[in-house]
Amino acid sequence: MTLWIVFIATMALSLFAAARVKSVYHRYHRGSVFSGLTGAEAAQLILRRAGIHDVEITHQDGLLGDHYDPLHKRLVLSSENYFGSTPAALGVAAHECGHAIQHQRAYKPLHWRMAAVGITTYANQLVLWVPVLGVVTGLIQPLMAAMLLAAAWGVIMLFNLITLPVEFDASRRAKAVLRDLNLIAPGDEAVAVSKVLNAAAWTYVAAFITSLVFFLWHLLPLLGGRSRE
Fold first, then answer.
1. Where do the structural domains in the chain lie, given as residue ranges?
2. pLDDT tops 90 at residue 94
3. pTM of the predicted structure, to 2 decimals
4. Which of 38, 111, 165, 208 could form a disulfide with 160 if both were Cys (CB 3.0 to 4.6 A apart)?
């Protein structure tokens, strides 16, 4: 029963954070900023100002699939943000530029996150398959399963913890550069960008809280000399 309560509570937190960012994004993905620039044009200006000339700016279909790919030095914006000139579009584009600037300046938390991607992928597979294999096949004993799950959730939790300063710093950089380059107007436009980026940040907070709760759920019984069945 307790496990179901934990599962439902963390799922509700994640769904709330995701729903909120979509709601705020849609609210401010309307109209056009005073500068009239699109997300792609703003990104080009921001990267140029930072002295970054080797990052490709491209777009793909899909809502809020925006990301910076440090391995291929590619900044990918959703079509809405690439072509859009709304406060939300410029805020998201500037945020992703923040990651490119972090990469250029060897921002340590970003490099820690990049280094942890591989092991975190394995950890995600463990939390998915260990419970299934343990229940269905019985090949994994409860104590061993608990140890594997505690270790896997610990890795995921640390990855999510490292992600927090990476994302918050990118948002801080985004707000500052949009203001400094006069890409958004003071007042309503600046407030809109701030709300969009702050709402997005809560999805990462929710992910960290969820992983922390499940890490402790599996770890504490081991410290007490027993395992979750």
1. 2-223
2. yes
3. 0.90
4. 208
